[in-house]
What we know:
Elements: H1 6-16, H2 21-28, H3 32-40, H4 42-79, H5 85-125
Helix pairs in contact: 1-2, 1-4, 4-5
Amino acid sequence: MEALTPIQNQALCLLAAGHTIDEVVAETGVGKRTLSRWKTTCNFKKLLQDAVTQTYDSAVAELVSGSREAARELKRIISDPDVPSKTKVTAINVLLNNAARAKESALEERLERLEESFDGTHSEQN
């Protein structure tokens, strides 16, 4: 892959971070047509896709980390003898609902993988 120029790299980072084309044009000083042309080149397109994926993965990791901290805090509330019962029940409810959603999500992912596997096997047989 060809290396990007510093201005292309800046545009790529801004786009990956979710900035609009108008914002990128204003920040970098390149024209809309130039930016549009860059976005159609294989190298830029691939690097942008990778950058967006990496940004998304980082955001998901941050959410997972925050979820762990929240679960620990809820567990602390539940086991604290000085916390009122009503608050404990609310904390238990939140904890159980989130655990159920996480399990449901994991099951959906497993089902999707099975369906993809089946579709691949089914396609090969036809």
